[in-house]
Each structure stands twice: as C-alpha cells, then as structure tokens.
Amino acid sequence: MALDTKKFIESLIEEKYTHLCVVPCSFVKYVINEAINNPNIEYVPCASEAVACSVAAGLKMSGSSPMVIVQSSGVTNMGSCITSLLKPYDVTFPILTSWRTYKSGDSEIQHEHLATELPKLIKAYGYEYTILDNENLENTISQINTCDETNTVAIIKKDSFTKIELDDKHKLNLLEYTPRSEFLTKLNEDFKSTDVIFIGTTGNTAREMYSFMPDTNNFYMAGNMGGALSLGLGFAMSGKKVIVCGGDAEFVMHMGGLTTAGRYRDKIDLTYILFDNESNKSTGGQNTYQQHIDYVNIAKSCNFDLFDNGKVNKLDKFEEFTQTLKNKSGLNFVCVKCGVDDETPRPPLEVVKVNRV
Ligand SMILES: Cc1ncc(C[n+]2csc(CCOP(=O)(O)OP(=O)(O)O)c2C)c(N)n1
Question: Domain named Thiamine pyrophosphate enzyme TPP-binding: which ranges (predicted)?
C-alpha cells in the first residue's frame, strides 16, 4: 500500500502548510512532482539540508507553516541547525526524512551506516522519531501535525507514495545539449593511461564515469554530497593532478569549499568540471531551479582560472579545453552545459570501496 500523493499534498494544504523546503531523494520523487504541480503550496528547492532547515525556521518564526523533506544522508547536514537553533529557540516544524536501507554487498556504501543508526542520530539531536504511516492518510497527517508541535522527525519508508508525473509545463527539455557521456568519452580518450585522478561526484556523474571512462584513474565518491572539490583539494595538496567531475546540485551543496580551494591556487593542480544538466538526475531528474546562478563568476571570484569564458557546450571546444589542461596546472574551472543520458549501472562495490589513490 502507498499513500495517494495528490491527496497527501491536498491534505497538507488543508492543514495550512505553506512551504515544502526540500533536498530531493528518490523516495519522495512523486511528492516533489505534486508539490511542483500544485500552485497552492510552495516548493522550495534548497542547496543543502542545513539550508532547508534554516529557511524553514525563518518561515516558522515569521508566521508561515513550513515542512522540510530530505534524504536520511542529509539529516547529518542539519545537525548544527537542529541542535543550536531549533532546540534552544524552541522552533518546531515537521521534518520528514527518507530512510535509505543497505544490503550487504551493495555498492551504495554511503547509506550503510545510517541504514541502522538513523534513529540513534535523531535521538542524539534530542528528537524522537516516528515511522510515517503509508496506508492511512488521516494517521499520516496526524503524525505530521505532531511533528509540527514537538521535537519529532518523521521517517519515510520506500514506496510510500503513489506515482505522479510532473505536469508538462514543468518538464525540462535538454535535448538541444550534447549528452554528458560524450564529454566523458573525450576525457577518457585524452587522459587514458595518465596518472591524473578523476573524482566522480555523488549523483549520476560517478555512475556515468564508470561506464564511459574505463581507462582513466577514477575515484567514485558515492556519498559526501558537496564535498568533491574539497576532497580533490586534499589530493592536490599532496601533489596529485586532479580533475573533479561535478553536477549542478553537488556544486552548490557546500559551496564554501571553493573559497578554501581558491587560497591554494598557486600551489596545486586541480580542475573542477561542472556538468550542468539543470537537474538532480540521480534522484528523479528534479529541476535544480538554479538557472539564476552564474557558476562561472562564482568560480572566478573564488580565484579559479577560466578556460575561454568558462563555459563549454560543444565537443570540439571541450577537446581544446582538455588539451590545454594537459599542460596546465593551477586551479581551473569550466562549466559544461550537457544533456542527459539513459541510466547506466552503478560502479560495483569493489571499485567504489577504495581509500587510497
Ligand atoms: C547530503 C545528501 N543529500 C541528498 C542526497 C541525495 N542526492 C544524491 S545525488 C543528488 C543530486 C545530484 O545532482 P547533481 O549533482 O546535479 O548530479 P546529477 O545526478 O544530475 O548528475 C541528491 C540530491 C545525498 N546523496 N546526500
């Protein structure tokens, strides 16, 4: 059994909830679709779970009625907001989190720890938890209302909501852009058998690197969303030549890393390639709603060097960029506007679970 997603959102609106502050998880894909479709509740896409919690706190403190929906991995990002803002100032609103599970041998090792420890983490924050009823909507709403008034986090199980398509007017059309696979294939050709380290970020970039870059030195960072640039900075500070392949949602999650990397520009060999597909491909293709962001100028003002104007969307230009990179060190940035490929398999456990490069 699953809850009727349309009715779920309607009930939230009837209960006067005003905003859904969200970092996507595939478990809540249909809730997000319906929240975007329905004009009577505001979908607030957030750069990180910490941002979602703080925005919701501001909304609640000023008379609105927000909710937060995130993935279990992101509950860690909320720690500071929960323990040093929500608890001491007694600000409550419903926080709903998916609970990602883990099977032994699975390569989604980013979920292994919280697959058993999520309730303890919530308790350590001083909150109770409740497993959200996914059969009886009345109970579900009553649980959410309890979360609105008490320090309680609601945990969402897999397949809790019925399927809802995004209305056509909200669908992204990326057909005019070259798919990411073609850029990754170029990287593979140009850097095969070199000792350059490629870091693939949480999201589909790492998965696609596994399929399209079989001959390069790849580290697939399955979790730690937002941390790829800083991980790369650590590698680069140890003398490695590093290229981080990121996504647009990954780029903004811990954007402060750019300011730290910028400080080391003259001492390192680190490049960030931002593959901008305007979406969270791996959690269901949700629009990141980041069209207002000038990624190139953010990187530039953090001390990154730009290739050409910092933007590439054609393969021949990209090749020019990779050739330049071969003979160039420093701190470099390029934003590649790209389309989407069909789903590719996740890298298997034995290639994900390495801890030395
Ligand atoms: C802290 C945290 N929050 C949320 C997620 C769920 N998550 C995994 S990938 C992803 C989006 C990735 O989008 P993007 O970086 O644009 O790459 P794409 O999948 O589009 O290639 C999200 C939200 C996560 N893994 N970790």
Answer: 202-323
